Amino acid sequence: MAPFSLAKRALIGKPLGSDQLEHERLNKRTALAVLSSDAISSVAYATDQILFVLGGAVGTLALSYVFPISATIVALLVLVGLSYQQTIHAYPGGGGSYTVAKENLGQGPGLVAAAALLTDYVLTVAVSVSSGVAAITSAYPRLVPHTVSIGVFAILLLMVVNLRGVRESGAAFSLPTYAFILMMVALLGVGLYKLSMGMGPLPAAAPLDVDPSSARHVASPVGYAMLFLLLRGFAEGCSAMTGTEAISNGIQAFKAPSQRNAAITLAWMVAILAVFFIGVSYLAQHLGVMPTTAETVLSQLGHRVFGTGAAYFALQYSTFAILVLAANTAFADFPRLAGILAHDKYMPSQFAARGDRLAFSNGIIGLALVAMLLVWLFNGDTNALVPLYAVGVFVCFTLSQAGMVVHWVKSKEPGWRWRAVLNGVGALATGIVSIIQIVTKFKEGGWIIAVLIPLLIFALHRINTHYRRYKIQVAFRGRSPLLPFNHVVVVPVSKVDKSAAAALVYATSVGKDVRVVHVEIDPTDTPKLEREWDRWDIGYELEILHSPYRSVVRPLVDYVTALQAETPGTLVTVVTPEIVLVRWWEHLLHNKTALYIRTALLFKPHVVVVAVPYIVGHDYEQEEKGPRWVADRAMLTGEMVAVRNADRPQ
Amino acid sequence: MAPFSLAKRALIGKPLGSDQLEHERLNKRTALAVLSSDAISSVAYATDQILFVLGGAVGTLALSYVFPISATIVALLVLVGLSYQQTIHAYPGGGGSYTVAKENLGQGPGLVAAAALLTDYVLTVAVSVSSGVAAITSAYPRLVPHTVSIGVFAILLLMVVNLRGVRESGAAFSLPTYAFILMMVALLGVGLYKLSMGMGPLPAAAPLDVDPSSARHVASPVGYAMLFLLLRGFAEGCSAMTGTEAISNGIQAFKAPSQRNAAITLAWMVAILAVFFIGVSYLAQHLGVMPTTAETVLSQLGHRVFGTGAAYFALQYSTFAILVLAANTAFADFPRLAGILAHDKYMPSQFAARGDRLAFSNGIIGLALVAMLLVWLFNGDTNALVPLYAVGVFVCFTLSQAGMVVHWVKSKEPGWRWRAVLNGVGALATGIVSIIQIVTKFKEGGWIIAVLIPLLIFALHRINTHYRRYKIQVAFRGRSPLLPFNHVVVVPVSKVDKSAAAALVYATSVGKDVRVVHVEIDPTDTPKLEREWDRWDIGYELEILHSPYRSVVRPLVDYVTALQAETPGTLVTVVTPEIVLVRWWEHLLHNKTALYIRTALLFKPHVVVVAVPYIVGHDYEQEEKGPRWVADRAMLTGEMVAVRNADRPQ
Questions:
Q1: Is residue B14 one of the residues assigned to a domain?
Q2: CA distances from A482 to A272, B502, B538 (A)
Q3: Phi and psi at residue B294, in whole multiples of 5°?
Q4: Of A536, A603, A636, the CB nearest to B633
Q5: Is residue A377 part of a domain?
Q6: What is the pLDDT of residue B479?
Q7: What residues pair up with B577 in beta bridges, in sequence order?
Q8: A200 and A168 share a domain?
Q9: What is the torsional sign of CA B32, B37, B39, B41?
Q10: pLDDT tens digits for A423-475?
């Protein structure tokens, strides 16, 4: 344990007292940086997704569709943003989808939202980290083969940082977000300027502003197939909207007046995201940039606009930084939701416990493990992960807004009609998008989510059932004093050695009626044991239990059964020595008799098995001269008995 | 446990009493069948190996070398056979290589022999089963893709049969051996007759009786390279000699006069093996038969000599049967040797224990697992496995015969000089062959054995060191009566429920000085617990232990430490309830606090942790109406206390 503890201290830090649990309140500027990194960082991959999906079918013709699709998504974003303004108004304590759905729609929809959120937080980590790694490998192509390792390492780092317990310290967290905002403003500003000065696609690139009819070489899908394709491009592009709900979840982190500040910050976030997303799509179209597996759209735009100088690298590094920060928000949200669910008895209670550093350690470790598994399974490929991503987000949007409709209808507060209509339109729109998400992305990975979420809901439900029933079963209603049992102690002995002596000393300390037995496996060994026993002469008789089938356990169980039949209501304690060895492999060299006895008697009423630890140290060489270190540490050794007997009046 | 026990009973059978351990004595004819299957079955693959190795380098030219190489091996076989006649004379109790080497050459060479034998038994199973499967797939080529599955299944079957405990019943075991002998006599007889009538190689086959100089198309190695190749062919062919020592190991299985009978049987075995091996090689040469990956030499000879009728299939089935029987001998020998080594404290003591059916179960299971692993790793390919095989056999031959030389020199019994010389020549010859084995097959797999045997020796030695030191360390020399400790019982309580009640009833049964403590993780929960405790009113005070860092274990350890500091020499028993759940996954939903407490206190002197099992049944629905089944089975429940209190005088 010691080396493990040391490593843990070095990585995680000293334990923190519970009294240090407090909240730092954020002003609007810092809150924007902390809470909107997930949403704003989506521009690093959303345009790519549209072009990637369409490009696979219609080639560079995709460029002519990217802007209209992006514009549609921005319209949806604004609608959802307005919808969440209502939530901020109605839930000053923070309205997460789980809470809103549970309170207004009931436990069932609440669980659906919870399952969707849990999968989405995992995907936020996997997608953001993969996309962040892509920003780096776009700048340094020779790092491409290490994509998975870099991604896994980044997640491990986030895990350790979060186990230490992240103070949401404004300054450190504002830096990546504002650096990214700065670089994006520069990219779009300079890009649009250069565009107006006549910059266009590279000669090698495909024609742009293409008239669809002129693209003779591309077999473009027609009719429903084309519609399906456009819908899928739209569905993938909706990954831009992930993270929109973060501000309405985190109202309590704002300085007073927190609701008003949150509403203003949300408006800012939506505006920034909308401008960046539409801007990137516009530049990509007019500069003829298509994503490749080796280079992201943003990196290509950076190269075109900034060249290969410092500005380009600043863009890439700030992209990486904000994406890691986005992943970090999931490390705060997932464990918090898991903690709430554990408190509501839908997840194992271990998730409700705060660790040494006040963080929900089990939730953080669980999230990191699943996210690393995803990055490894999907080879850190953002394009492969995104089809799984936005499904859950839109399910949550829909449930949350439907819940708000019910909330307004019930509360009937001033303006409830138009508020209900606004949320209803939002719920309808996002509900339709949810269906588009599942249907169009089903083959590309949507089915994984369509299977996973119901399974998760089932698991949450089963766990709750267990806890509910367990509570009923162990409920205690008695009120009167306890009455001890008649108590017999049984000590099975196979050899006369120090471990047996330890068990006997313990047995005589805890009970008056002590029975020493020997289970006879090989009758030829018995006479020797009996001679040694008589020579020891401690005043207890050694009973021999025959074992015709060479089982240690069965004769002992029979003996205990007989004892209890003789005097009903007898409590039997079986005391066995347990050898504790210092080296792990040495355990393989000893029979696990103590464990077998415990297992065999586990379900037998009124029987308790006690394993008395007898420590065998590693300082063997010294042992052979005479025990020193071990004698000090061992529990109850023959030596100790001898010492104590010396004190005894003869 | 119940379903597992049932399945075990069905597969393995009822347990057998120790008094049923007896030996059946065999007459010569049966002993030949039982003990020589390993040796005689080698003809199914030995000729193949020579041709396979030489054919790879010189093509069908190999046919001109197979007879002289086989003849050399037969000469060596006769020498080794004569050598083992001496062992039979000197060790009427059975002289295994480990015993002979240990007694005459010392512990070190004994361990070398033991390690070599252990690897060889494993390879006997892997090679014999693979070769047996090849006999079947040669007859039914469409089974080739299932080679590994058939091999693994055969080993599993052998494992189960041996766990049931094989009586060495003569009749059943004689059948495969004598069927194979019969079919081989027929093959060689009819084959030689047809050969004399002018049958020759198939037109498609290569020229035979080739004059090496005429083989213009084959780039034949020259000089040392050719010598090396021939030596390697010789080394692979020596796999024919595996199993030769079986009879001298098993003298005690013979009817009286056992030594004489064993000597005669050994002579028969050597003669039969020699004739079959030389015969197969002769036929292969003159019928121009080269082994292919799809068909063994024996199968091809069968086709040429018998055609495709019943006689051919009888040959293949009897080959399969004798090879399985050969593998079966390792299932008797490996566990027996492991048992001897465990008894000598060189292997874990678990290998010395006889199972329900009097077989050494752990040895049988261990052998089967390793053999299956080998078959899987080498794709059931006999040609790939054989290079690993004979190395260990010849190391054992050498050590065993060198041991015999020492034996004769020490004993000085009549004729000791010529006997020593004979064994000395045998040791020298097999020693040289051992070196040839290692050197020529090193690259093809010999290195695995050259690494594995030293590792095994190291492991055997380490295990022995552990047991030796352990024995010294637990040796007990005290003789005086025990003196019990001053005893305090500590019961940590987190809730007032039935499991806590059970722990308290137990605590008051085993000790007078009981302290009830509550480790306070969340101070807001404490008042409620204190109210419930006061309402329960059992006459014990509840002490609150503060835990600023939310650890359950640390405050408890500090409390116990303080107790012991207060009254030195105090024995502390910590009693915790342990929830026992019926479904495995339910365990994941509960903190393992009892386990953490036990682990934290394991190395602390004079502290014993007792987990009082509290069984939570699966009949929840009934539970909600009122406990029935569980109340009957539960150890110490609140209900029981209530019942007992009703009996109490008020």
A1: no
A2: 68, 10, 6
A3: -95, -25
A4: A603
A5: yes
A6: 57
A7: B612
A8: yes
A9: positive
A10: 999 999 999 999 998 888 888 888 888 899 999 999 999 999 888 888 887 77
Q: What CATH number is associated with residue B613?
A: 3.40.50
Cβ within 8 Å, pair A635-B473: no
CA–CA min distance A545, chain B (Å):
15
> Are A490 and A446 found together in one domain?
no
**pLDDT above 60 (res A480):** no
Q: Which domain range does residue B585 map to?
A: 486-647
Number of domains in chain A: 2
- At which residue do the structure tokens 């849990």 appear? A118
Residue B204: pLDDT band with limits 50, 70, 90: low
Query: Alpha-carbon distance B395 to B242, whole Å?
Result: 12
Q: How crowded is residue B618: how many other Cβ atoms within 10 Å of its Cβ? A: 14
Q: Looking at the domain assignment, is residue A478 inside a domain?
A: no
Band (A352; pLDDT cuts 50, 70, 90): confident
Residues B429 and B513 in one domain: no
A480: chain B residues, CB-CB within 8 Å = 537-538, 641-642, 645
pLDDT in tens, B127-172: 999 999 999 999 999 898 899 999 999 999 989 888 886 555 566 7
Q: Does B181 share its domain with B34?
A: yes
Do A461 and A603 have their domain in common? Answer: no
Q: Are residues B564 and B448 in the same domain?
A: no
Please check whether residues B455 and B604 belong to one and the same domain: no
pLDDT tens-digit map of A40-92: 999 999 999 999 888 888 888 888 899 999 999 999 999 999 999 988 888 88
CA distance B490 to chain A (A): 13
Question: Which tokens sit at B468?
Answer: 């030796």
* Spatial distance between the Cα atoms of B311 and B313, rounded to a whole number of angstroms: 6
Q: Which of residues 453-472 of A touch B (CB under 8 A)?
A: 463, 466-467, 469-470, 472
Chain A contact for B218, CB < 8 A?
no
d(CA B649, CA B264): 86
Least reliable range by pLDDT among A394-398, A484-488, B153-157, B345-349: A484-488
Q: Which of residues 480-519 of B touch A (CB under 8 A)?
A: 480-485, 487, 496-501, 504-506, 508-511
Q: Is B537 left (phi over 0), alpha (psi -120 to 50) or beta?
A: left
Taking only residues 534 to 563 of chain A, the set having a beta carbon closer than 8 angstroms to any beta carbon of chain B reads 535-539, 548-551
Q: Which residue of A lies nearest to B579 if distances are taken between CA atoms?
A: A474
In a domain, B6, yes or no: no
Q: Is the CB of A214 inside 8 Å of chain B's CB atoms?
A: no
